[in-house]
Protein backbone atom coordinates (compact mmCIF):
# COMPACT_ATOMS: atom_id res chain seq x y z
CA UNK A 1 0.00 0.00 0.00
CA UNK A 2 1.28 3.48 -0.85
CA UNK A 3 1.92 6.05 1.86
CA UNK A 4 -0.77 8.26 0.34
CA UNK A 5 -3.28 5.42 0.62
CA UNK A 6 -2.23 4.61 4.18
CA UNK A 7 -2.81 8.20 5.33
CA UNK A 8 -6.05 8.46 3.37
CA UNK A 9 -7.34 5.27 4.99
CA UNK A 10 -6.44 6.51 8.47
CA UNK A 11 -8.33 9.78 8.02
CA UNK A 12 -11.33 8.11 6.37
CA UNK A 13 -11.50 5.35 8.99
CA UNK A 14 -11.73 7.81 11.87
CA UNK A 15 -13.95 10.11 9.80
CA UNK A 16 -12.61 13.29 11.38
CA UNK A 17 -9.39 15.23 11.13
CA UNK A 18 -8.87 17.35 14.27
CA UNK A 19 -6.81 20.48 13.62
CA UNK A 20 -5.33 23.05 15.96
CA UNK A 21 -2.45 25.40 16.73
CA UNK A 22 -1.09 26.73 19.99
CA UNK A 23 2.02 28.83 20.57
CA UNK A 24 2.89 26.93 23.73
CA UNK A 25 4.82 23.71 23.19
CA UNK A 26 3.53 22.04 26.34
CA UNK A 27 -0.11 22.83 25.51
CA UNK A 28 0.46 21.59 21.96
CA UNK A 29 1.77 18.25 23.25
CA UNK A 30 -0.92 17.87 25.90
CA UNK A 31 -3.65 18.38 23.29
CA UNK A 32 -2.00 15.80 21.06
CA UNK A 33 -1.99 13.31 23.94
CA UNK A 34 -5.66 14.04 24.68
CA UNK A 35 -6.61 13.37 21.07
CA UNK A 36 -4.58 10.17 21.07
CA UNK A 37 -6.30 8.96 24.24
CA UNK A 38 -9.66 9.69 22.60
CA UNK A 39 -8.78 7.34 19.74
CA UNK A 40 -7.46 9.76 17.11
CA UNK A 41 -4.68 8.44 14.87
CA UNK A 42 -4.31 11.34 12.41
CA UNK A 43 -4.02 15.02 13.39
CA UNK A 44 -3.45 18.27 11.51
CA UNK A 45 -1.31 20.91 13.19
CA UNK A 46 -1.67 24.28 11.51
CA UNK A 47 1.37 26.35 10.57
CA UNK A 48 -0.08 29.62 11.82
CA UNK A 49 2.45 30.99 14.28
CA UNK A 50 6.13 31.56 14.93
CA UNK A 51 6.39 28.45 17.09
CA UNK A 52 4.77 26.12 14.56
CA UNK A 53 7.93 24.52 13.17
CA UNK A 54 9.61 23.97 16.55
CA UNK A 55 6.36 22.72 18.10
CA UNK A 56 5.86 20.30 15.22
CA UNK A 57 9.38 18.93 15.70
CA UNK A 58 8.50 18.24 19.35
CA UNK A 59 5.22 16.59 18.30
CA UNK A 60 7.16 14.21 16.06
CA UNK A 61 9.62 13.47 18.86
CA UNK A 62 6.79 12.62 21.29
CA UNK A 63 4.91 10.66 18.64
CA UNK A 64 7.97 8.53 17.87
CA UNK A 65 8.50 7.82 21.57
CA UNK A 66 4.92 7.30 22.78
CA UNK A 67 2.38 6.96 19.95
CA UNK A 68 3.92 5.33 16.87
CA UNK A 69 0.55 4.82 15.13
CA UNK A 70 -0.21 8.56 15.09
CA UNK A 71 0.05 10.32 11.73
CA UNK A 72 1.01 13.98 11.99
CA UNK A 73 0.00 16.35 9.22
CA UNK A 74 0.83 20.00 8.77
CA UNK A 75 -1.77 22.50 7.61
CA UNK A 76 -1.89 26.05 6.25
CA UNK A 77 0.92 25.26 3.81
CA UNK A 78 0.95 28.12 1.30
CA UNK A 79 4.31 27.81 -0.48
CA UNK A 80 7.04 25.39 -1.47
CA UNK A 81 9.49 26.54 1.21
CA UNK A 82 7.06 25.60 3.97
CA UNK A 83 6.44 22.21 2.36
CA UNK A 84 10.17 21.52 2.15
CA UNK A 85 10.77 22.51 5.79
CA UNK A 86 8.05 20.25 7.16
CA UNK A 87 8.88 17.38 4.82
CA UNK A 88 12.46 17.42 6.05
CA UNK A 89 11.37 17.07 9.69
CA UNK A 90 8.97 14.23 8.91
CA UNK A 91 5.41 15.48 8.37
CA UNK A 92 3.19 12.58 7.25
CA UNK A 93 0.76 14.66 5.17
CA UNK A 94 0.20 18.24 4.06
CA UNK A 95 -2.90 20.42 3.84
CA UNK A 96 -3.33 23.86 2.25
CA UNK A 97 -6.08 26.49 2.35
CA UNK A 98 -5.84 26.57 -1.47
CA UNK A 99 -4.22 24.61 -4.30
CA UNK A 100 -0.47 25.32 -4.68
CA UNK A 101 0.89 23.70 -7.87
CA UNK A 102 4.52 23.75 -6.70
CA UNK A 103 3.62 21.97 -3.47
CA UNK A 104 1.68 19.28 -5.35
CA UNK A 105 4.61 18.78 -7.75
CA UNK A 106 7.01 18.46 -4.82
CA UNK A 107 5.01 16.11 -2.57
CA UNK A 108 2.95 13.79 -4.76
CA UNK A 109 5.93 12.17 -6.56
CA UNK A 110 7.34 11.44 -3.07
CA UNK A 111 4.15 9.48 -2.26
CA UNK A 112 3.08 12.08 0.32
CA UNK A 113 -0.59 13.01 0.69
CA UNK A 114 -1.32 16.59 -0.30
CA UNK A 115 -4.85 17.85 0.34
CA UNK A 116 -5.46 21.38 -0.97
CA UNK A 117 -8.42 23.56 -0.14
CA UNK A 118 -10.78 24.03 -3.08
CA UNK A 119 -14.10 25.85 -3.38
CA UNK A 120 -14.91 25.71 -7.10
CA UNK A 121 -15.16 22.91 -9.68
CA UNK A 122 -12.34 24.60 -11.62
CA UNK A 123 -10.01 24.40 -8.61
CA UNK A 124 -10.95 20.77 -8.01
CA UNK A 125 -10.28 19.89 -11.66
CA UNK A 126 -6.89 21.62 -11.49
CA UNK A 127 -5.97 19.75 -8.30
CA UNK A 128 -7.13 16.40 -9.70
CA UNK A 129 -5.07 16.94 -12.86
CA UNK A 130 -2.00 17.50 -10.65
CA UNK A 131 -2.48 14.13 -8.96
CA UNK A 132 -4.46 15.18 -5.87
CA UNK A 133 -6.81 12.46 -4.61
CA UNK A 134 -8.05 13.99 -1.34
CA UNK A 135 -9.63 17.45 -1.52
CA UNK A 136 -10.35 19.79 1.37
CA UNK A 137 -13.58 21.72 0.78
CA UNK A 138 -12.78 25.13 2.23
CA UNK A 139 -14.37 27.11 3.70
CA UNK A 140 -16.97 24.48 4.49
CA UNK A 141 -19.39 26.91 6.14
CA UNK A 142 -19.50 29.06 2.99
CA UNK A 143 -19.94 26.10 0.63
CA UNK A 144 -22.39 23.98 2.62
CA UNK A 145 -23.31 20.31 2.26
CA UNK A 146 -25.44 21.11 -0.78
CA UNK A 147 -22.31 21.98 -2.74
CA UNK A 148 -20.87 18.54 -1.98
CA UNK A 149 -24.08 16.85 -3.10
CA UNK A 150 -24.05 18.79 -6.34
CA UNK A 151 -20.47 17.93 -7.34
CA UNK A 152 -19.84 14.44 -6.00
CA UNK A 153 -20.95 12.62 -9.16
CA UNK A 154 -18.61 14.78 -11.26
CA UNK A 155 -15.56 13.64 -9.25
CA UNK A 156 -16.09 9.93 -8.52
CA UNK A 157 -12.38 9.24 -7.98
CA UNK A 158 -11.80 11.91 -5.34
CA UNK A 159 -12.35 11.94 -1.61
CA UNK A 160 -13.61 15.14 0.04
CA UNK A 161 -13.33 16.64 3.51
CA UNK A 162 -14.98 19.95 4.52
CA UNK A 163 -13.11 22.16 6.96
CA UNK A 164 -14.54 25.29 8.55
CA UNK A 165 -17.93 25.50 10.17
CA UNK A 166 -18.50 21.80 10.84
CA UNK A 167 -20.14 21.53 14.26
CA UNK A 168 -19.75 18.70 16.77
CA UNK A 169 -23.49 17.94 16.59
CA UNK A 170 -24.88 14.82 14.94
CA UNK A 171 -27.03 16.99 12.66
CA UNK A 172 -24.06 18.92 11.28
CA UNK A 173 -21.83 15.89 10.84
CA UNK A 174 -24.61 13.76 9.35
CA UNK A 175 -25.52 16.41 6.77
CA UNK A 176 -21.97 16.30 5.37
CA UNK A 177 -21.66 12.52 5.34
CA UNK A 178 -25.05 12.19 3.64
CA UNK A 179 -23.82 14.65 1.02
CA UNK A 180 -20.88 12.36 0.25
CA UNK A 181 -17.79 13.45 2.16
CA UNK A 182 -15.28 10.89 3.44
CA UNK A 183 -14.31 12.82 6.59
CA UNK A 184 -14.79 16.19 8.27
CA UNK A 185 -12.07 18.58 9.38
CA UNK A 186 -12.78 20.05 12.80
CA UNK A 187 -10.83 22.87 14.44
CA UNK A 188 -12.15 25.50 16.85
CA UNK A 189 -15.55 23.79 17.16
CA UNK A 190 -13.74 20.87 18.80
CA UNK A 191 -10.55 22.38 20.21
CA UNK A 192 -11.63 25.90 21.10
CA UNK A 193 -9.40 28.74 22.26
CA UNK A 194 -11.24 28.72 25.58
CA UNK A 195 -10.52 25.02 26.16
CA UNK A 196 -6.88 25.52 25.24
CA UNK A 197 -6.57 28.58 27.49
CA UNK A 198 -8.14 26.65 30.38
CA UNK A 199 -5.96 23.61 29.61
CA UNK A 200 -9.15 21.58 29.80
CA UNK A 201 -7.76 18.48 28.15
CA UNK A 202 -10.40 16.19 29.66
CA UNK A 203 -13.16 18.04 27.80
CA UNK A 204 -11.19 17.95 24.55
CA UNK A 205 -10.76 14.19 24.98
CA UNK A 206 -14.41 13.60 25.85
CA UNK A 207 -15.78 15.77 23.05
CA UNK A 208 -13.51 14.01 20.57
CA UNK A 209 -14.77 10.62 21.76
CA UNK A 210 -18.36 11.81 21.29
CA UNK A 211 -17.65 12.94 17.72
CA UNK A 212 -15.93 9.62 16.91
CA UNK A 213 -18.98 7.78 18.27
CA UNK A 214 -21.35 9.92 16.18
CA UNK A 215 -19.33 9.21 13.05
CA UNK A 216 -19.30 5.45 13.71
CA UNK A 217 -23.10 5.45 13.95
CA UNK A 218 -23.31 7.19 10.56
CA UNK A 219 -21.06 4.74 8.71
UniProtKB/TrEMBL annotation:
At the top level, the lineage of the source is Bacteria
Q: Which UniProt keywords apply?
A: Carbohydrate metabolism, Lyase
Q: Does the keyword Lyase apply?
A: yes
Pfam families for the chain = Aldolase (PF01081)
Whether Calcium counts among this entry's keywords is no
Cited InterPro entries: Aldlse_KDPG_KHG (IPR000887), Aldolase_TIM (IPR013785)
Query: CDD domains, from UniProt?
Result: KDPG_aldolase
Q: In which pathway does it act?
A: Carbohydrate acid metabolism
Complexes and interactors: Homotrimer.
Task: Give the record's family classification.
Answer: Belongs to the KHG/KDPG aldolase family.
What the entry lists under PANTHER family is as follows: 2-DEHYDRO-3-DEOXY-6-PHOSPHOGALACTONATE ALDOLASE-RELATED, 2-KETO-3-DEOXY-6-PHOSPHOGLUCONATE ALDOLASE
Q: What's the protein called, per UniProt?
A: Bifunctional 4-hydroxy-2-oxoglutarate aldolase/2-dehydro-3-deoxy-phosphogluconate aldolase
What is the scientific name of the source organism?
Answer: Chryseobacterium gambrini
Amino acid sequence: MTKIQTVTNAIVNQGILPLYYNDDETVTIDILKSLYKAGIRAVEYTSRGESALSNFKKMIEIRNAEMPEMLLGIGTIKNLQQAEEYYEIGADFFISPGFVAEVAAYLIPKDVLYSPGCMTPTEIITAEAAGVTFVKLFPGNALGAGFMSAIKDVFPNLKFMPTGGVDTTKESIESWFKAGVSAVGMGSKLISKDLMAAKDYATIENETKKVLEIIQTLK
